Amino acid sequence: MADKLNVITIVGSLRAASYNAALARQLPKWAPAGMSISSAPSWAGFPIYNADDQAKGFPADVEAFADAVHKADGVIFVTPEYNYGIPGGLKNAIDWVSRLKDQPFKDKPVAIQSATGGPVGGARMQYHLRQAMVFLNAFTFNTPEIFVGLAHTKFDEKLEFKDEAGIKFITQQLAVFEGFIRKVGGK
Amino acid sequence: MADKLNVITIVGSLRAASYNAALARQLPKWAPAGMSISSAPSWAGFPIYNADDQAKGFPADVEAFADAVHKADGVIFVTPEYNYGIPGGLKNAIDWVSRLKDQPFKDKPVAIQSATGGPVGGARMQYHLRQAMVFLNAFTFNTPEIFVGLAHTKFDEKLEFKDEAGIKFITQQLAVFEGFIRKVGGK
Amino acid sequence: MADKLNVITIVGSLRAASYNAALARQLPKWAPAGMSISSAPSWAGFPIYNADDQAKGFPADVEAFADAVHKADGVIFVTPEYNYGIPGGLKNAIDWVSRLKDQPFKDKPVAIQSATGGPVGGARMQYHLRQAMVFLNAFTFNTPEIFVGLAHTKFDEKLEFKDEAGIKFITQQLAVFEGFIRKVGGK
Amino acid sequence: MADKLNVITIVGSLRAASYNAALARQLPKWAPAGMSISSAPSWAGFPIYNADDQAKGFPADVEAFADAVHKADGVIFVTPEYNYGIPGGLKNAIDWVSRLKDQPFKDKPVAIQSATGGPVGGARMQYHLRQAMVFLNAFTFNTPEIFVGLAHTKFDEKLEFKDEAGIKFITQQLAVFEGFIRKVGGK
Asked: Nearest-CA distance from D19 to chain C in Å?
């Protein structure tokens, strides 16, 4: 087996007490031995995309975020669903880096997780995110998919994810994602 | 017939020379006699949505934008497609106003137009926008749909839209949209 | 108030013990006083669509099904999700009637319900069905949406739907759908 | 390099003069040297899916179709769009084989092409088909995507595809798809 894989998480919510951010922080506990998981740099400071601004140069934050995606062996989006779609802020981050000459999602192994308060768990959003990744030519991982519905019942007061079934699925996704990265990424 | 309808356009691009902004500006030329069309206030200054910031109060820009949607008899989105989806900035604007206690898209008649450089003309994005409008419980107008593909061939150097077939479709959409607003909006 | 509304159900599964068929049969119990609900004729005998066959004439079953949709004040699809989409048989039924010169979904008020074994309850399918209805220019009802997930836990051995929360949502959907039909259908 | 790849086409239309069937027949002309392309067995005789029928055994046609997919190194769907979605007949074929214990799309490299009379060229349908392939855990190829819009202007009276730009894109897709199959299929 090759080196330990470097996987980064991109979180779709900026809220301090975000369930998705909390979930992303805890992923290392459930990662297989061959995978390390860390956070991508924040996109919180990205301006709203405007092609006229881009013409003056990319913000340093955008370059740093894209650079982290470039260097990663794989990316895991962990994000809520807003209005049945991708949070505008997260989509704005994707829009910015997509304009780089060497856009970083090309051929990148990508997995998706979502936590929401409702029962559907973010499914509507995940297929929109997959569609964006078609254009960006990522290798988007299929199943198992992770939909954490009724999130408020599955995290404790310290924002620890306590759902046994969910932990099992996530552990399984990360294990299968490792094999996927090694196959499609040639690692 | 009731009063002249007040329809506003929401543009999905911030670029000064945006084809979509140009198209939106020209819509009054093709509107039926019973409809006036003007621009919604800009969402360019909205911060990236963060629920912690919302807890401190809604920005004045968000309130002004929502207020214009509330007062409108109908809304026309005129927007590009970014990465096969809704531009992040536009989605961020929708996300902000969706959190208002009295979110303004409820029961609002909504039509969509898109202009893109590619041949598909924004179709991928339009169904994502429709999906957001399901959650927000708008009345989203169906057909004729407006997809302006290969936009660079259809606007002149002054950004005047010159495509005869496109103008015909847009004129038709606006006319049918008027009837739709009067029916579903009870105007 | 006008006459009692004539609403028909179109079921997406042919299985005798289908949860969706069972749910459709029970809808009259939860309908408002102003709405009667009955079954559309079956599409089980439709051939697989082939334009060459259509050129020889529409099957009588297709005409009967379309006629029932034409005469209805509203339609409720009650359907499972197959492979994250519309069951092929149901889509085939829609495809057939869509080719009629006077296709019956035009301006028709349409609502959607789905029951599935998984937790997501058919959401992925519902947005595909909505997209078909955009082309067919139906008035597709928005919210409340009905997703019956984990269906095997919510029906008893006689296929009676026993989920209190679900019954409440369905009752609410039918009540709001009545008002929707009266508004957009001018009833 | 390994052996010549065995790629099969699955056509979404049953019409004898189908543009999509015609396109599928001509693909061998534009295939790279390392790829042979032939037709999957027809799904025209599949009954409409009914789980009660499945319980009595799978039709021989379904088994033959699934077997061909199993044996193929890759699959190319070439299909029209019906009502903004997957043709019901094609979806029915997918639904049938998805119920096999060893469903054949698992880990299968899949590409998509579509030809339609309208300008959008089938894009709406392709993302629905991609979503089905997520569930079936195929490796769905991303770009270049093939959308043949305004098909009636691009085929001659013998149904030969004559669009230079389209041929170039298809040739490119097939070449890149070969590399994709070799990578994800380990060929």
From this structure: 12
D21 burial type by CB count under 10 A (0-12 exposed, 13-18 middle, 19+ buried): buried
Residues whose CB falls within 8 Å of the CB of residue C157, separated by 6 or more in sequence, listed in order = none
Q: Supply the pTM of this predicted model.
A: 0.97
Read off φ and ψ for residue A6, nearest 5 degrees. Answer: -100, 105
Three-state SS for chain A is CCCCEEEEEEECCCCCCCHHHHHHHHHHHHCCCCEEEEECCCCCCCCCCCHHHHCCCCCHHHHHHHHHHHHCCEEEEECCCECCECCHHHHHHHHHHHCCCCCCCCCCEEEEEEECCCCCCCHHHHHHHHHHHHHCCCEECCCCCEEECCHHHCECCCCCECCHHHHHHHHHHHHHHHHHHHHHCCC
pLDDT tens for D48-104 read: 999 999 999 999 999 999 999 999 999 999 999 999 999 999 999 999 999 999 999
Q: D115-150: b or e for each residue (b if 16 or more CB lie within 10 Å)?
A: bbeebbbbbbbbbbbbbbbbbbbbbbbbebbbbbbe
Q: What is the mean pLDDT of residues D114-140?
A: 96
**pLDDT tens-place string over residues B152-167:** 999 999 999 999 999 9
Write out chain C residues lying below 8 Å of D88, CB-based: 48-49, 86, 88-95
Where residue B33 falls among pLDDT bands split at 50, 70, 90? very high
Pairing of strands B146-148, B139-140: unpaired
Residues in chain C closer than 8 A to B133 (CB atoms): 142
| Beta carbons within 8 Å of B109's beta carbon, 6+ residues apart | B73, B74, B75, B138, B139, B141, B177, B180, B181, B184, B185
Nearest chain D residue to B122 by CA: give it.
Answer: D120
What pLDDT score was predicted for residue B105? 98
Q: What is the domain partition of chain D in residue ranges?
A: 5-184
Q: Are B131 and A94 within 8 A, CB to CB?
A: no
**Residue D10 exposed, middle or buried by CB count within 10 Å (0-12, 13-18, 19+):** buried
Give the gyration radius of chain A's Cα atoms.
16
ipTM of the assembly?
0.97
Chain C hits for B127, CB-CB cut-off 8 Å, are 127, 131, 134
Q: CB count, 10 Å around CB of D2? A: 11
Which of the four pLDDT bands, split at 50, 70 and 90, describes residue C1?
A: low
pLDDT at A98 over 70: yes
Is residue D1 over pLDDT 90? no
- Specify the pLDDT at position B186: 77
Select the residue of A52, A85, A124 nearest B16 (Cβ to Cβ): A52
| CATH class of the structural domain B5-184 | alpha beta
* Cβ pair D135:C90 closer than 8 A: no
> Quick count: other Cβ atoms within 10 Å of Cβ A92?
24
Position D186 pLDDT exceeds 90: no
Q: State the CB neighbour count (10 A cutoff) for residue A88.
A: 28
Which tokens hold the place of C123?
A: 């959401």
Structure tokens at B80: 């590009």
Other C-beta atoms closer than 10 Å to the C-beta of A30 total 19
pLDDT over threshold 70, residue D2: no
